[in-house]
Amino acid sequence: MKLRTDFVTNSSSSSFIIARDEGLSEKLKEAIVRVVQQEMLGKKILASDSTEEEIQKVFEEEYVHEEEQEEVRDALKAGKTVYKGYVNFECCSYRYAELFEKIWKEMEDAGKDEFIVIDGDLSY
């Protein structure tokens, strides 16, 4: 755990030190996109080939409001896949730190010589 010895203006923040190449290689970009897709873009609930029964079931189970149902149907007709997720603001600061750490790990794994976490302890 980090001990702060200097003036802290916001106790819900934590510093970090990383080293990386100036630009981002395709491998590092793919690592970032992979984490964002997994963590920030929801889980797949419907696809353009979903049946009417599947659509109705999702609407009921996922509590999709009536005003959103038409937009979901329009998106499906346009060939889109529909995802649903949530953000828990009660534990957001820890989750936010976890997201940084997950992205950094993926980037380290993807580009061992391009990205290094020097101080990645985001606990405060």
Summary keywords:
single chain; 124 residues; alpha+beta; 2 domains; two-stranded antiparallel sheet; two-stranded antiparallel ribbon; 4 strands; 13% strand; elongated
Give your account of this protein's structure.
This protein has helices at 26-40, 52-61, 66-77, 92-110, and strands at residues 17-20, 43-46, 82-84, 115-119. The protein is α+β, with helices and mostly antiparallel strands. It has 2 domains: 1-42 and 85-124, no CATH class; 43-84, no CATH class. It has a two-stranded antiparallel ribbon. A two-stranded antiparallel sheet has the order 2-3. Helix 1 runs antiparallel to helix 4. The radius of gyration is 20 Å and the shape is elongated. The mean pLDDT is 85.
State the gist of this model.
This protein has 124 residues and is an alpha+beta fold. Helix content is 45%, strand content 13%.
SSE arrangement:
Layout: E1 17-20, H1 26-40, E2 43-46, H2 52-61, H3 66-77, E3 82-84, H4 92-110, E4 115-119
Antiparallel strand pairs: 1-4, 2-3
Helix pairs in contact: 1-4
